[in-house]
Amino acid sequence: MGSHVIDLVMLRNNFGTEEMRKLWDDEARITAQLKAEAALAKAEGDLGIIPREAAEEIVLAVEKGNFDVGEIAKQSADSKHSLIATIRALQKEAGESGEYVHYGATTQDIVDTGNMLMLKDSYDLVYRDVCEIIRILAKTAKEYQYVTMAGRTHATQALPITFGYKVAVWLDEFGRHRERLEECTKRVFVGSMSGAVGTYASFGPLGIEIEKRTMEYLGLETPNICWMAARDRFAEYASIIASISASLGKIGNEFYNLMRTEINEIEEQFTPGKIGSSTMPHKRNPAAFEGLASLTPAVLESVSLIYRSAHMEHERDAMSWRLEWIALPEMNIYIAYQLASLKSIIAGIKVNKERMYENMKLQKGLLLSEKVMFEVGKIFGKQTAHEIIYEIAMKTFEDERSFADELMENEVIAAHFDRNQVDEWLRPEKYTGLAAEKVDEVILALVQKGYLSDKIS
Fold first, then answer.
1. pLDDT confidence bin for 348, thresholds 50/70/90
2. 9, 21 in Cβ contact below 8 A?
3. Who contacts 302 (Cβ-Cβ below 8 Å, separation ≥6)?
4. Is the pTM of this model over 0.70?
5. In which band, very low, low, confident or very high, does the pLDDT at 268 lie, cut at 50, 70 and 90?
6. Residue pLDDT, tens place only, 119-136
7. Cβ 225 vs Cβ 231: under 8 Å
8. Element of type H or E holding 149
9. Strand-pair partners of 156
10. What are the Cα distances from residue 280, in Å, to 262, 276, 284, 365, 392?
11. Which of 170, 209, 256, 321 has its Cα between 20 and 30 A from that of 400?
12. What does DSSP say about strands 266-267 and 148-153: parallel, antiparallel, or unpaired?
């Protein structure tokens, strides 16, 4: 049984996914470290650093996987060391060849390289979901390309936009997230196998080649120099995760606000048996939206720990290093939930087109004051028109009357324009600018990059 929200049976699926949790559990951690040990032995066997037969026995022992996680954990607690129990378990499984286990390596070589293997597997899930979200958002943006709604600035209605345009802004963001993910791999997924202080002293003159071959076996890049005291690789990955999570949290918060009873333009999927409150039977709460938004602060805190781990003293220390052991699983598990959550939300979201239209009437035409100002400005100039329309708009607010009525009662306006013209200006769907065109432009850009197919479905 767990005690962290990631592991609690009752809560874990609200904070992560089973798929991602498995990549960071005890078994995955030990497996990744043993893979690093096996690759090291194989490389050393190739180069004659250890007997080839010994290398083969070590690799075979790892492949058999006869390791008791519980017993390794117990011995780790007794030894007060994070890796020695794993080394001893592998040594035992390898028999006489066990003397060549961990030959020349230091603990941080194995732990860092193991973490990189787990991180690379996690990256694959994140990348997959970001690609899928791009497809889903593109489909949604296209579906609602011409659905007009109030655009809001400073939490109040500003000008008409389309819901498809709003979604296309998010789509464009996720296109950049995919670019960042693709561009980081060569820099981030780099292993380490260079000995106690990174000088290859324990490996001898073939140290650089040992590291290179070990990384080739593991599918990782080879560093130019030891990075035990340089944690920017994890920091770069964490920064990208932070950016993705920030976008996800913003979307969740936006949906949360649009679902407010008084706005009611969006509603998350309601399924039979879903309960919003233990005391108010009528409640249909934005639970999924809240869950999506709530994890961004948690991700950002984990990312902060990654940056704190960069404060390595001298050639390395455990004070900073241990922070990564906390942060790497957390931020990957949290982001996995957020990505899965958004996919689920979009699949079941209800867009209340009628309410969007009704909400645009709340200010009795004032939503189109800019349009009116520019039309009037064709005669009087923009700045003069702003002063004229400002006075009429403020009077409309105070009198709680129709903007069109107030406009037609103004002598200056009435002398140059008729009611039909004014009514035409105040049609929201006629003043969305290039919102719909921008949807197509964003989608086309992603198609050209190969992120979307020509047909959005």
1. very high
2. no
3. 238, 326, 327, 328, 330, 331, 334
4. yes
5. confident
6. 999 999 999 999 999 999
7. no
8. strand 148-153
9. 153
10. 18, 8, 10, 37, 44
11. 256
12. unpaired
User: In the 8-state DSSP scheme, what is residue 266?
Assistant: E
Q: What's the token pair of residue 107?
A: 């603990």
Active-site annotation, residues: 154, 277
At residue 367, the 3 state secondary structure works out as helix
The span from the CA of 163 to the CA of 159, in Å, is 13
**Angle ∠(211,216,220) on CA atoms, nearest 5:** 90
123 and 109 in contact (C-beta within 8 Å)?
Answer: no
C-alpha span between 457 and 443 (Å, rounded): 12
Residue 39 burial by CB count (10 A; 0-12/13-18/19+): exposed, middle or buried? buried
Partner residues linked to 221 by β-bridges:
190
Token couple for 457? 């479905």
Alpha helices in 349-434 (DSSP H): 353-359, 369-380, 382-399, 403-408, 411-416, 419-425
What pLDDT band is residue 1 in, cutting at 50, 70 and 90? Answer: low
Measured distance CA(201)–CA(209) in Å, rounded: 13
Longest dimension (CA), the chain: 103
CA dihedral for 439, 443, 446, 451, sign (positive or negative): positive
The DSSP-derived string for 34-48 is: HHHHHHHHHHHHHTT
pLDDT digits (tens, 9 = 90+) for 170-226: 999 999 999 999 999 999 999 999 999 999 999 999 999 999 999 999 999 999 999
- Residue whose entry in the numeric block shows the structure tokens 């000088």: 199
Q: What are phi and psi of 194, to 5 degrees?
A: -135, 10
> Which amino acid is present at 264?
N
Phi, psi for residue 375 in degrees, rounded to 5: -65, -45
